[in-house]
Amino acid sequence: MCVGCVQACPAGSSSTSVGVNECDLCQAGKHQPTPGSFGCVDCPPNTYRSQVGATSQAQCMACPSQTPYALAGSVSAQACKPLPCAVGWHYKYASRDVGEWCDEPCPRGSFCIDTQARPCLSGTYADAEGQTACKLCGAGKYSLALGAVNASSCEQCPPGTVGIYTGYAPTACWTCPPGTSNSRTGSSSPADCAPCPANSFAPAQSAECRANDDADGRLSSSGRDADFFAIAGVQSVPSWTLVLTVLAATSAAVMS
């Protein structure tokens, strides 16, 4: 017999000190197949080990088929989950190593389609937890807020503008063109920008038309200014078809 010799720790255990015959069994969730090792190895992802002293990776049990996902080093079948994150849920912490597994639903003002919570963009809001998409502000409204938690963040379009619903997040209202006016709040149709009557004028984004004698020198020598005046029932009104075409093209560019 070798007196004073230090023997290597057997498989399924490890030592934390060199030259010391003190071996600790591998903890639950770990294994060590190599004798004389320092430290034990985590069971791989999607497995678990509830007992101590595992001598091989094969002793790490696979998660059930109904709940196939688990973090490395899991110690029980309860750690196995159906998905890395179910839709509408997210990791509370940025790293899986320090946080629990998808431990809370997506908070208000955000949406979750994977493991991360993302704030609602301008023109949208989320008024409940666990949302996979944010709601759009309605027609005649807009919003610049990020991470909005209720519909009150959506403001009504002011007079002189309209909020055309396009199916995309509204972050601004469209200005009524010169020669038209709109006195209403929250308008949603281009038709709400009404042409000025004869012998009146209106700059862009006007709430009302004004008589020509209020023009303050805007009349040209020919008696009218095509950008601001409506004379004898002929208005200078840009084509809303063109505006909507540009809007659709912009929306398509955003999607791509």
Structural description of this entry:
By secondary structure, the chain is mainly beta. It has 3 domains: 8-81, Tumor Necrosis Factor Receptor, subunit A, domain 2 (Ribbon); 83-155; 157-255. 6% of the residues lie in helices and 17% in strands. It contains 1 helix and 21 strands. The protein has one helix at residues 240-255; strands at residues 13-14, 24-25, 30-31, 41-42, 47-48, 61-62, 89-90, 104-105, 110-112, 117-119, 124-125, 135-136, 141-142, 155-156, 161-162, 174-175, 180-181, 194-195, 200-201, 210-211, 229-230. The strands form 10 sheets. Strands 20-19-21 form a 3-stranded antiparallel beta sheet, with no helix packed on it. A two-stranded antiparallel ribbon has the order 1-2. It is rod-shaped. Residues 1-5, 94-99 and 215-256 have low confidence and may be disordered.
What features would you highlight for this structure?
256 residues; Tumor Necrosis Factor Receptor, subunit A, domain 2; three-stranded antiparallel β-sheet; two-stranded antiparallel sheet; disordered N terminus; disordered C terminus
Oligomeric composition of the shown chains: single chain
Numbering strands along the chain, what is their spatial order in the largest sheet?
Answer: 20-19-21
Number of strands: 21
| Relative helix content | under 10%
What is the alpha-carbon Rg in Å?
34 Å
Mean pLDDT: 76
Distance from first to last alpha carbon: 77 Å
List SSEs in N-to-C order: EEEEEEEEEEEEEEEEEEEEEH
Number of helices: 1
- The parts where pLDDT drops under 50 for at least 5 residues are 1-5, 94-99, 215-256
**Total number of distinct structural domains:** 3
Specify the overall morphology. Answer: rod-shaped
Broad structural category: mainly beta
Strand content: 15-25%
State the major sheet. 3 strands, antiparallel
